[in-house]
DNA sequence: TATGAATGAGGCTTCATTCAT
DNA sequence: CATGAATGAAGCCTCATTCAT
């Protein structure tokens, strides 16, 4: 299983191997159910070495979260074209987001499902990353409003709420996509759609879903129950 | 502790007490970290009685999920006005959803955070409930399209994607609202807004966010990257 | 080994069995080297039961110390004749002390060797017991001085030092006696004397050693280096 | 950390550094709780080097005991004036003993507290040292008896018991003194006196306590319970 | 002379689960 | 209907010790 049994590996490499194994295991089993034994075996090392390098299950999880969060933020940031129009930037970011979560489903699972479920010490790290992204999106919405010459129509608070909803929808779509994609053994895919959307499809769906609506909002057209 | 020590209680009542305790405990600690000891104590009974009535931790969790899922579906279903217009129906459903998740945050936490995080046996039950809701929403979108006389503009697949995004956004908002509402000690609420939105506010935000965009879509106005 | 396998024993009894096993094991191996496994086996129960009743190794050790300290103080206290002369009281106390430590060598070993060696939480309990005894002895010395009509000759501080030395000598003799008495396998007994002194012998030795000297001190005869 | 990292140090020096670190660590933590890691770090070397030079934890501890025991015996021996009167010799020896234990509290702690607590292999080495000292003291008592012209009054066995008690009292005083001297944070010092006695004070206390009594004994005056 | 890399073994603790009453 | 007594299995973590350089 784990890597071919190669002895005497430099620390940095071993640490990466261990964290890879940890991401996988935490994603598959959840924080509590994942055992250090399993992680060590998957990494192809003995348990004491994991402790020597990463100190404890908690610190290991924390390190994993930080690494995956940084990778995600980097991917999204790198995907946007800096000087494009706001809608273009948002589309780029979403595409980057969906592409990254599709390529690293286990990292995304750890961030989205596990970290938020297991108490403050971890949730805070994820919340910080999420807040960064929400701020970025809110900035784009605000910029778009200005570009459209209707800054006054949207209160800051409203912009924040919309950004939150957008990010939430994106997260939800990403998880849904990954659930569909799981190998054929999963019974979950059976319910609902089957084919996994590409990153561009997902981004397009979301842009259509939201951006168009934002356009109306910016022109003061609001939906009201009555 | 838990309930006042009253002996000789009929089975149905005892079972409800146990499941209430279980919901609370699972929501607070997560599936793995919740101990049968804690659940039994919180329910005010001895552990063997829990096993006598609910057989095992797994079955107990399963029963909890089914109960909470049914309650949520019932609440949402009951909230819609059967013969109203599609947008009105959607708004009603969303309002009912946000109201129920706000009144039963622990049930919602178990459904949304715990059940999906802990392997197939449980996730399937939640996925089924979610699929039911998604179908309902998709039906509304389709109906709205028909009402607007533009059925042909939206492919079924597109409708399903939009329904998914809408449900995802709603779930995200619901969780966010509950996180805000947690007692002041939570550091998570600090990031982003502070005041918890009412159910109607949340539903309105989402309708504005999505419905308006849907309107455009139905008229064939699509957003494209180029 | 451990007691004949008797199931379903009331808690109080089981707790005593466990503590007996613990005293034995701690005395034999020392606090750190004693394993909960060994204690449980010696007590004839499973390890979880030990934890259920006594919570942790630390608490178990603490409980053992308290029990043994109380037993020793009780034994010494019970041995003195309340209204006798001071020297008689001291002799009685010493006899009781030597008799108790001889009958409970493992308890004494835990108090004298283990508890003082393993950090404050435990050492404090023993120090408290020891202080109680030292105060008692100091009181007797003071009383004797008064009886002899020479209260002024001995400063309080001097009395305390003497009491300390006397208690220390008694402890040392008790340990020495127990070391001698250890079964034939011990190589320690070979060095020095062989026959174990009786409690009365030991008390007599100490009275002769110290009391007679105190007599001189009380009359102002002091030893000086020059 | 420990010493400044100086490479290529001759073996003898390195060994001393290691044993110094070991004494300190064993005194602070106890034999079992002391880890080879901590010792190596405190010595400023890598763990394999410790094993290369000292083979195992057990041998290291043994070496430490031998070194400290030899140092103590040497100090006591060197302190006595060879041709002085017996009482003078005893006083000198006690003074030397208290001075040495005060200057090397960690070595004394290892000898007195740790070595005797951890099984035969180590206890024997300490017992041997102790026996040597006891014989020396017994010799002095015998000599004193002869000097006083009353050799017949004291049986050999009685002399041995008295020597034991005297040594025990001295040990007890030494430990008590070191306990007092520990930094102000120790709660143990609070019980009993506060100021640490000098070596000469301690020796004087003991001489007064014991020697005077011995004088009486030598003249046939015995204390009897009745 | 000296060390970074690595592990087998074992200890403390907890938990889901079952008897016997 | 209800429980006090009890345990097998497993998890986290640490340690003394060695290998290859």
From TrEMBL, chains A, B, C, D:
Organism of origin: Streptomyces noursei
Q: What is the protein name given in its UniProt record?
A: TetR family transcriptional regulator
Q: Which GO terms describe its molecular function?
A: DNA-binding transcription factor activity; transcription cis-regulatory region binding
Gene3D superfamilies the UniProt entry points to? Tetracycline Repressor, domain 2
Q: Among its keywords, does the record have DNA-binding?
A: yes
* PANTHER family hit by this protein: HTH-TYPE TRANSCRIPTIONAL REGULATOR RUTR, POSSIBLE TRANSCRIPTIONAL REGULATORY PROTEIN (PROBABLY TETR-FAMILY)
Q: Which SUPFAM superfamilies match?
A: Homeodomain-like (SSF46689)
DNA-binding region per Swiss-Prot/TrEMBL record? 35-54
């Amino acid at each position: 299983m784990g890597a071919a049994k190669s002895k005497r590996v430099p620390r940095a490499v071993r640490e990466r191997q261990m964290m890879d194994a940890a991401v996988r295991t935490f994603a598959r089993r959840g924080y509590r159910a994942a055992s250090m034994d399993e992680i060590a075996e998957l990494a192809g090392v003995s348990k004491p070495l994991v402790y020597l390098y990463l100190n404890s299950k908690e610190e290991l999880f924390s390190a994993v979260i930080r690494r995956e969060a940084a990778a995600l933020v980097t991917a999204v940031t790198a995907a946007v074209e800096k000087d494009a129009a706001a809608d273009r930037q948002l589309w780029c970011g979403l595409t980057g987001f969906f592409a990254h979560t599709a390529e690293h489903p286990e990292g995304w699972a750890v961030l989205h499902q596990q970290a938020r479920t297991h108490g403050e010490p971890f949730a805070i790290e994820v919340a910080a990353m999420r807040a960064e992204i929400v701020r970025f999106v809110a900035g784009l919405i605000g910029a778009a409003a200005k570009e459209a010459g209707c800054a006054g129509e949207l209160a800051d608070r409203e912009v924040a709420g919309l950004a939150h909803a957008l990010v939430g929808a994106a997260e939800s779509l990403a998880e849904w996509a990954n659930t569909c994609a799981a190998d054929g053994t999963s019974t979950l895919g059976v319910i609902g759609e089957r084919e996994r959307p590409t990153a561009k499809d997902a981004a397009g769906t979301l842009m259509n879903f939201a951006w168009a609506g934002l356009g109306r909002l910016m022109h003061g057209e609001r939906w009201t129950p009555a």
